Amino acid sequence: MSGGYHTSWTIPLEHREDPAYHAAGRRMDFAQAVYERRSALGWSTVELARRAGMSEEGIESIEESGVDPTLELIEQLATALESGARIDPGSTPEFRFEERAA
């Protein structure tokens, strides 16, 4: 019988070095970046989908970490989100959308 709750997860080094692990992390960072920028603008998924020329289901899939962030998709969403995109593998998160300077 278990004596308590999990308070932290330890990821073995071999898993952290796996390309699939890194790809999942990129999808999660991308999803979070889209959600945060969309929310900062006060937009619904429907509004972002309209501005990006995508379906609402497509935006929801992105925000659920279900889509790999291709350069074409990043550019499309950056334009729709009226922002620049920043990718920095040395930081956490690796990806974010930033408001353009005036």
Describe the protein's architecture and organization.
- It is a single chain.
- With 102 residues, the chain is mainly alpha-helical.
- Helix content is 52%, strand content 10%.
- It has five helices and two strands.
- It has helices at 13-16, 19-41, 45-52, 56-63, 71-80, and strands at residues 83-87, 95-99.
- It has a two-stranded antiparallel ribbon with strand order 1-2.
- β1 and β2 form a beta hairpin.
- The radius of gyration is 16 Å and the shape is globular.
- List low-confidence stretches: none
Strand order of the largest sheet: 1-2
Largest sheet: 2 strands, antiparallel
Spatial gap, N to C terminus: 59 Å
Order of helix and strand elements from N to C terminus = HHHHHEE
Rounded mean pLDDT is 88
Structural class determined from secondary elements? mainly alpha
Total of helices: 5
Number of strands: 2
Fraction of helical residues: 40-55%
Rg is 16 Å
Strand content range: 5-15%
Shape: globular
